[in-house]
Task: inverse folding
């Protein structure tokens, strides 16, 4: 569009505005609705939560304390425990789950495999169970006289039942097993669908060049799935940072806070202890900050430059 | 030029957005009535009765008690009571979110709150509760119930059930280990540990079942001396808390000598004694119905007073759990308070039927002379269980539970794990104290 000088400028400008608007106004209305919705239900509460995180006090007696809450985080051993626990879950569980999901998806992508549909459904099925329901079932499976102990005892692998839920180390393992069971199938589906888009001729060419199936996996499958692996690891990281239902229902944070997650600590601060909603909001902002930092790192490490 | 135009358009959108947001925050507090979510605002029904709502949990116990109270109410104000059942956790959440939002819409007139949580509500939401001290006589109630239910000299809660504890035990196992009932009456926790060792040695049964996440037994031990995790002015009292130290030593001794069956949830806890695995259950009297649920063990149980810590001024009585009724400061509060005062607050006959119909032992002292309290329970070998419990109830040492019981306990239970694996008791308490002070200043 060229510059027009003089008084024609304004009318011209207006008319372009109207023609553009007329041409696209339906589109603008669509955007407007979602912008308003997102603004109202995402950004407005976020701002309010941030303001809340600058306050402290019991229940309704909140007053502004500036950044005191953020300073308090560093001296709060329970918060540090919950943060450490969450990172242990993250560092152990996410890689294990991603690798398992990749493994299953490649296995189940084999066109010669019989009952493929059945196996795919079976592995995906945990992802549709209710979080609370499966957590409660895991609690019973791993109880002192639960199925897992009975099995291990029956196979003579252990002499006395393991205290899965009341030993600090084993309790963490239990939580990790539970989340892995729940989410592996979910991630597998992403890889399976991505695998459909990998050109078969590449494998053919590789086979002709004499590449073993392990080499094919590492040099074709993995690079082709890279964007999806990045996506699933970010989503899983965010999911793990928000871990709540499993911990709440399987161990209730115990024994002695050894399975406490950040989200559960937020719950405790709001509803279990004398409520301090300001401090609870501060802790939730920590999750926000962590999600941003971790996603950024993952993009940097794994993402393409362009 | 196209750039400039779209900029203008964006400005317009942002302006619209802001206007919408502002309108939304300004408007919604006035509009809309909350009748839909069951909150009675003390309205009047067609026949002139005042409508009040109550929130409580446990249909077989608290709700049943409310229904019974509704039947026996004979006050002047006509009242129509609507009872809404919620899980206790849900009530805590709803109260917290509702009261902190500053609106009383949808709140009930009467709510049941656990004693150990009460102070946290009373202090967090200063004007949310209505003082009901004028509607009943606090001296009629077990003394230990008063500090948790009052604040700054005002009585906010009407004491309801008692968590008076007893030492429930299997007579056959204890006999086999060489103990009679008299040997178990008014003992100390140190003796309890010795008895537990004998029982384990002679019968092979662990003495009791414990969930490592639940420090209830420590609280029971501590309260026999009238101490708590915090002092009356709210100071955190762990490091120089002699009763807590002794209690922890007993706890460790029980654990180290394998005298405890570890469980990880409530149903396992119940199964531990219903299956005949453990020899005793030192717990609040509300456990009795669960013990009696196992028909085959009829006549094999008895109850002795709670062991005490071996210290000056300790009593053979303690408390575990128990809750009280509160009235919220909204329309209909007078009617609600009158309702509570007329039933739970002064009606001795009501407490007799409460006991026979619901099995709830109240904390209203005059009621214990009533007939229902003298009942000889065949399950416990003809013992007057209720009467004995109500006598122990009057001896329970007073404790101010303060505001941070659950918070401190989370810190403490982490430290106790380390204590059990070898950390010294002094370090454990000193560390717990430092952490608690950092968290609850």
Result:
């Amino acid at each position: 569009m060229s510059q027009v000088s003089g008084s024609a400028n304004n009318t011209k400008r207006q008319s372009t505005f109207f023609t553009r608007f007329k041409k696209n106004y339906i589109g603008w209305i669509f955007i407007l609705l979602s912008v308003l919705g997102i603004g109202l239900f995402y950004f407005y509460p976020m701002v309010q939560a941030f303001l809340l995180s600058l306050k402290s006090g019991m229940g309704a007696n909140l007053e502004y304390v500036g950044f005191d809450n953020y300073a308090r985080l560093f001296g709060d051993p329970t918060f540090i425990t919950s943060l450490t626990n969450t990172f242990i879950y993250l560092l152990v569980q996410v890689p294990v789950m991603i690798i398992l999901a990749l493994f299953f998806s490649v296995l189940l992508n084999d066109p010669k495999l019989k009952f493929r549909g059945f196996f795919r459904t079976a592995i995906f099925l945990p992802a549709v169970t209710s979080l609370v329901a499966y957590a409660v079932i895991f609690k019973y499976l791993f109880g002192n006289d639960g199925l897992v102990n009975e099995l291990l005892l029956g196979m003579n692998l252990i002499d006395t039942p393991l205290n899965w839920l009341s030993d600090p180390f084993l309790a963490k393992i239990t939580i990790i097993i539970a989340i892995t069971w729940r989410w592996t199938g979910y991630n597998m589906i992403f890889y399976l669908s991505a695998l459909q888009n990998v050109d078969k001729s590449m494998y053919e060419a590789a086979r002709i060049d004499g590449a073993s199936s392990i080499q094919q996996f590492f040099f074709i499958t993995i690079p082709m799935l890279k964007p999806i692996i990045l996506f699933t690891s970010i989503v899983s990281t965010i999911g793990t940072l928000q871990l709540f239902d499993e911990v709440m229902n399987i161990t209730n944070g115990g024994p002695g806070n050894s399975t406490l997650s950040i989200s559960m600590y937020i719950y405790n601060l709001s509803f279990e202890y004398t409520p301090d909603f300001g401090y609870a909001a501060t802790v939730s902002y920590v999750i926000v900050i962590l999600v941003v930092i971790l996603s950024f790192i993952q993009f940097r490490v794994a993402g393409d430059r362009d | 030029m196209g750039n400039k135009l779209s900029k203008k358009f964006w400005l317009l959108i942002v302006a619209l957005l802001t206007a919408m947001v502002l309108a939304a925050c300004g408007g919604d507090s006035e509009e809309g009535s909350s009748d839909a979510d069951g909150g009675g605002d003390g309205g009047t029904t067609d026949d002139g009765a005042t409508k009040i709502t109550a929130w409580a949990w446990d249909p077989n116990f608290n709700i049943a008690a409310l229904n019974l109270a509704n039947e026996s109410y004979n006050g002047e104000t006509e009242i129509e009571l609507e009872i809404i059942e919620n899980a206790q956790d849900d009530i805590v959440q709803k109260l917290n979110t509702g009261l902190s939002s500053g609106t009383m819409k949808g709140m009930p007139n009467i709510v049941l709150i656990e004693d150990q949580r009460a102070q946290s509500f009373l202090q967090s939401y200063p004007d949310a509760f209505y003082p009901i001290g004028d509607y009943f006589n606090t001296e009629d109630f077990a003394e230990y119930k008063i500090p948790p239910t009052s604040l700054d000299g005002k009585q906010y809660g009407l004491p309801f059930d008692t968590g008076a504890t007893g030492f429930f035990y299997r007579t056959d196992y204890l006999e086999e280990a060489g103990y009679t009932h008299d040997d178990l009456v008014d003992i100390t926790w140190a003796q309890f540990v010795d008895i537990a060792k004998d029982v384990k040695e002679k019968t092979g049964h662990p003495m009791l079942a414990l969930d490592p996440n639940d420090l209830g037994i420590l609280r029971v031990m501590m309260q026999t001396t009238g101490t708590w995790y915090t002092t009356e002015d709210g100071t955190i009292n762990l490091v120089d808390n002699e009763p807590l130290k002794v209690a922890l030593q007993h706890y460790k001794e029980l654990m180290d000598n394998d005298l405890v069956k570890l469980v990880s949830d409530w149903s396992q806890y119940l199964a531990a004694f219903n299956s005949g695995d453990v020899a005793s259950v030192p717990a609040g009297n509300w456990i009795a119905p669960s013990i009696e649920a196992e028909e085959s063990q009829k006549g094999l149980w008895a109850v002795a007073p709670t062991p005490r810590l071996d210290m000056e001024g300790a009593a053979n009585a303690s408390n575990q759990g128990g809750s009280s009724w509160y009235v919220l400061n909204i329309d209909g509060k007078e009617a609600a308070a009158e309702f509570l005062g007329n039933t739970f607050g002064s009606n001795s006959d009501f407490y007799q039927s409460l006991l026979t119909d619901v099995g709830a032992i109240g904390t209203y002292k005059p009621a214990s002379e009533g007939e229902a309290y003298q009942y000889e329970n065949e399950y416990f070998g003809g013992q007057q269980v209720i009467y004995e419990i109500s006598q122990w109830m009057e001896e329970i040492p007073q404790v101010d539970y303060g505001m941070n019981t659950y918070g401190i306990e989370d810190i403490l239970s982490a430290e106790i794990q380390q204590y059990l694996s070898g950390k010294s008791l002094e370090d454990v308490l000193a560390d717990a104290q430092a952490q608690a002070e950092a968290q609850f200043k």
Remarks:
- The CA atoms of residues 46 and 250 of chain A lie 30 Å apart.
- The radius of gyration of chain A is 26 Å.
